Amino acid sequence: MRTVQEHLAACLAAVGPLPPLEVVLPDAVGCILAEDVLATSDLPVADLAATDGYAVRAADIAGARPDAPVTLRVIDELRAGAVDPIHLVPGTAVRIASGAPLPTAADAVVPIEQTDFGQATVAVRTASVEGENVRRRAEDLRAGEVVLPAGERVGARQVALLAAAGRGRVAVHPRPRVVIVSVGDELVEPGRRAEPGQVYDANGHALATAVQDAGAATYRVAAVPDARRELRETLEDQLVRADLVLTTGGLSYGGNDTVKEVLAPLGTVRFDNVAMWPGRQLGVGHVGDGTPIFALPGDPVAVQVAYETFVRPALRAMAGYADLYRDSVPAAVTDGWYSPSGRREFVRVHVTGSPAEGYRAAPVGAPASLLVSALARSNALAVVPEDVTDVRAGDRLHCLLLDS
Amino acid sequence: MRTVQEHLAACLAAVGPLPPLEVVLPDAVGCILAEDVLATSDLPVADLAATDGYAVRAADIAGARPDAPVTLRVIDELRAGAVDPIHLVPGTAVRIASGAPLPTAADAVVPIEQTDFGQATVAVRTASVEGENVRRRAEDLRAGEVVLPAGERVGARQVALLAAAGRGRVAVHPRPRVVIVSVGDELVEPGRRAEPGQVYDANGHALATAVQDAGAATYRVAAVPDARRELRETLEDQLVRADLVLTTGGLSYGGNDTVKEVLAPLGTVRFDNVAMWPGRQLGVGHVGDGTPIFALPGDPVAVQVAYETFVRPALRAMAGYADLYRDSVPAAVTDGWYSPSGRREFVRVHVTGSPAEGYRAAPVGAPASLLVSALARSNALAVVPEDVTDVRAGDRLHCLLLDS
Questions:
Q1: Chain B contact probe: residue of A133, A205, A218, A226 with most B CBs at under 10 A
Q2: Average pLDDT over residues A98-113
Q3: Which of B101, B208, B376 minimises the CB distance to A196?
Q4: Chain B residues within an 8 Å CB radius of A167
Q5: Most buried by CB count within 10 Å: which residue of A310, B73, B236, B308?
Q6: What own/partner pairs with CB < 8 Å and gap ≥ 24 does B74-80 have?
Q7: From the CA of A309, how many Å to the nearest CA of chain B?
Q8: What is the CATH number of the domain that holds A362?
Q9: Chain B environment of A46 (Cβ under 8 Å)
Q10: In chain B, residues 94-113 whose CB comes closer than 8 Å to chain A
């Protein structure tokens, strides 16, 4: 029997950060940068007006007061985006829009509300100091400076900076493309009619959602029956677009070992009884030309536990994240239960509280029953160590926060 | 001058939860349920084997011990998905796969590893109690029961439950469709060559990313020049697919009031000088047949502050969330600064710490400078109240956590 830690190590060893790919900015969103992005020019490239008003020489209006305004001749007007240089001669002003480049020899901008809004001449009512209301060239970025380092996630604020620096493309670790195959004769697509004995394919939809939440792209394949030829053909069809294949079900170690039998000739996949509950039978390895594959159980609760324990950390490693794991907090359980000996148990709980006052974890549903309804109402998984069989009210367990 | 609170109230009054729409399960992901979802049948619909093994009558193997196994005749085999009912006569067993419906009159499943794996007959080495390794009919959901209540967000665990309950479609508040228009003669698309005086359109890309992060769908329109006809045509073209329109820039209260002039005949949009920094000029109202529109400033830092303050809460209201706001924490600032009088200031800070030990907020870049590089390196906005002009090191400010 393999430990959880050993199986996780095998899963992480089977994958690695996807090779850098240069993509257009919108496709970089949510990805991890695979390069130190350098500024190719200063930002701003010139001194700019920081407000609407009049570009002046501060020395010309040194004596301006509300009761003694200084009047300057307005020699021109500059809108944002103006590209022709203007030179400011002493005693004059240029009407200027916020964001427009300052005329040469101007060193301050008087906000429009401190003037009489003049057209041919303008009366300035307050003095300015040099640099006032001016956005200095390169005050944001200097050419050659690192805009954002490799390893940074590209979110809205990072996109603002990359775009402002003029980058239309950046190198990122692309989103992993994950193919999901649910295996089982009993599976029916939700929304269709199920005969007694059939069950709806919860795993395909739930895994696709979880994989997307981790920032990966999912290709869900409809459920395939427990038939060797169909499963083999499905896998061969899908491999071309997969960075990772996930199968659920088809792993009974009694009768129908479809997944094991199909994968044996297609690649090198190792199956183990892993010391966890729910879970047990799990597979990891490669198929085709080295595409990683994880074989997960068929039970929907066991699948989400296996996703949290093995798949999500692997997806984050592929996407280039340094931090692979969810936040967890220690929480006192509100009720006790018996936990299987020699297996690490993951129990659906609802965690409340705060670090200041401490956390409490209430089991949702009976811990021994694998209820999907309890899974949906939980917000954390309490982790019971392998050697603990008797969990008592008040015991503190590490709880994995599922919405973190 | 309007307060931040007044402008936020106007923004929220201009929108509302989008009307419920029935969508297929994959399209419901990330949305808020607009109906109480009821179970249409029991889950499971029948008693099922919870493990691979042999379905038995517990009474038949009451005396089984490792040194005195009980032998039963194997009368059939049941795979998962089997739909034909089987009746178990006393003294017999049915080989059964995990997930298969129990034969009538069977009341327990003996795990395969507690037997000799027999085909025609099976030797059972341990006794069972009634119900052992059986997943009881309706133990997860009872027909008519509320599976998930309206107001719940559809994530991976909720999808598992909806799919398991057979729901192929659910009613949700759909994702808001947001059209984003950047206005300005000076704007150039990132990746193209910028002349001196031109600036790259950071707002379109950054807003599109922020809007997506909030779960909405974005239609970014390339930057349009500060020209009335082009802006009007762009708005008229885009209205048909918009639940909300956002404009950035074109709001100078000096010269080029393109946005104001274009919007005046198209709808009822009110422009105000809002008592905040960065920000100032902001608009809110409706265009066309009542599509809400928010006019935001042109500066990229001011745009992200306006997004956090007004747009994100409005998007969450449209998407049906009850909780509209990001988490915030009180944090002691590491350095002081002068803050404008009579305006609520939002300063880019990097927050560290924990609730237990307290939080610290270090300003990123000079608070008075609107640096995109500082925005990208910050993880929070410190909020300085309107009446505070002198922030000192050690003062505690509320900080909006931007990654929460």
A1: A205
A2: 91
A3: B101
A4: 190-191
A5: A310
A6: B74/B118, B74/B119, B74/B120, B74/B121, B74/B122, B76/B103, B77/A255, B78/B49, B78/B103, B79/A185, B79/A186, B79/A226, B79/A255, B79/A256, B80/A184, B80/A185, B80/A186, B80/A199, B80/A226, B80/A256, B80/A298
A7: 15
A8: 2.40.340.10
A9: 196-197
A10: 95, 97-101, 112
Interchain CB contacts (distance < 8 Å): A and B: 302
pLDDT of residue B164: 95
In whole angstroms, give the CA distance from residue B380 to residue B397: 11
Residue A141 lies in a domain: no
Mutate to test the interface with B, among A52, A86, A198, A209 (most CBs of B within 10 A): A209
Q: Find, in chain A, the residue whose alpha carbon is nearest to that of B215.
A: A213
CB-based contact A88:A104 (threshold 8 Å):
yes
Q: What is the CATH number of the domain that holds A52?
A: 2.170.190.11
Same domain, yes or no, for B164 and B125?
no
Tens of pLDDT, residue by residue over B122-150, are 999 999 999 999 999 999 999 999 999 99
Q: Tell me if B79 and A256 make a contact (CB, 8 A cut-off).
A: yes
Say what the pLDDT of residue B226 is: 72
pLDDT of residue A255: 53
Residue B76 forms contact with A (CB below 8 Å): no
In this predicted model, which residue has the larger pLDDT, B337 or A239?
A: B337
Q: Do A285 and A341 share a structural domain?
A: no
**Averaged confidence pLDDT in chain A:** 92
Q: For A349-363, how does the pLDDT look when each residue is reduced to its tens digit (9 = 90+)?
A: 999 998 878 999 999
Which residue of chain A comes nearest to B163, CA vs CA? Answer: A202
A159 in helix, strand or coil? helix
Task: Give yes or no: residues A374 and A300 share one domain.
Answer: no
Please check whether residue B308 touches A, CB under 8 A: no
Q: Tell whether B179 and B268 lie within a shared domain.
A: yes
Q: Are residues B182 and B305 in the same domain?
A: yes
Asked, for residue A140, whether it belongs to a domain, the answer is no
CATH assignment of the domain containing B263? 3.40.980.10
Residues of B with Cβ-Cβ distance to A201 under 8 angstroms: 163
A347 is a domain residue: yes
Residue span of the structural domain in which B284 resides: 4-18+175-318
Asked whether residue B89 is assigned to any structural domain, the reply reads yes
A243 and A152 in one domain?
A: no
pLDDT digits (tens, 9 = 90+) for A293-313: 999 998 999 999 999 999 999
pLDDT, position A260? 83
Between positions 9 and 68 of B, the ones with CB within 8 A of A are 24-26, 29, 41, 43-46, 52-53
By C-alpha distance, the chain A residue nearest B138 is: A371
List of chain B residues with pLDDT < 70: 252-256
Q: What is the ipTM of this complex?
A: 0.91
Same domain flag for B11 and B110: no
Residues in chain B, overall count: 404
Note the pLDDT of residue B255. 53
DSSP line for B316-370: HHHTT-S--S--EEEEEESS-EE--TTSEEEEEEEEEEETTTEEEEEE-S-TTS-
CB B381 within 8 A of CB B400: yes
CA–CA separation, B110 vs B139, rounded Å? Answer: 20
Whether B190 sits inside 8 A of A83 (CB atoms) is no
pLDDT tens digit sequence for A364-381: 999 988 999 999 999 999
Q: Does the pLDDT at position A9 exceed 70?
A: yes
Does A254 have pLDDT greater than 70? no
Instruction: Give CA–CA dist A166/B348, Å, rounded.
Output: 22
User: Considering only CB atoms, which chain A residues are within 8 Å of B372?
Assistant: 43, 140, 160-161, 164
